[in-house]
Specification:
2 domains; alpha/beta; three-stranded antiparallel beta sheet; binds zinc ion
Length: 167
């Protein structure tokens, strides 16, 4: 099933990323901002680079000597800041990323979220007050997690310096 966000994403083909083992928290934040980010703790760095090159992804790392130690990623961004929130802001600035698709992707599965078909069927997975307030619900086609724009979203948004998403 192709969601609306899929179509928008392919139209503008936003950059996709690979996060190495040092910048996985940054990877989570980029997923929160709607970006496709691949990581896998079980793969070794040269395997991550090979996958990144195959998929045309930008390889994110804090290893300054990466390209001396491993085959060179076709697209590489060295992430200077140490703190993950600062790293996120750095990448957004460096690549002039837009954050209008924030909260359109599952942070766990990296899949675009879909509109939840029938909120009533999610009663066991969503707090009653969220249903009562009729907040729009989105669901991950991979893990089935349900997302809504509650206070936790607003806090994350503030921390990362994103715009508050519209419903
Ligand atoms: Zn998921």
């Amino acid at each position: 099933m192709i969601s609306a966000s899929d179509r928008i994403h392919s139209e503008f083909s936003p950059p996709r990323f690979t996060a190495d083992h040092m910048v996985i928290r940054l990877g989570r934040y980029l997923r929160l901002a709607g970006y496709d980010v691949f990581w896998n703790r079980r793969l070794r760095t040269h395997e991550l680079i090979a996958l990144s090159n195959r998929d045309g992804r930008i390889f994110l790392t804090r290893n300054r000597r990466l390209s001396q130690e491993y085959p060179r990623p076709h697209h590489l961004l060295y992430v200077a800041p140490e703190h993950p929130v600062e790293q996120f802001r750095f990448v957004v600035r460096q690549l002039r990323l837009t954050t209008e698709y924030a909260f359109s992707r599952c942070v766990w599965c990296n899949l675009p979220l879909e509109a939840a078909p029938d909120p009533e069927q999610l009663r066991d997975r969503v707090p009653a007050d969220v249903l009562d307030r009729k907040l729009p619900l989105q669901i991950c086609p991979g893990c089935g997690r349900v997302y809504w724009k509650g206070s936790h979203v607003k806090n994350t948004v503030r921390r990362l310096g994103l715009l508050i998403p519209e419903d």
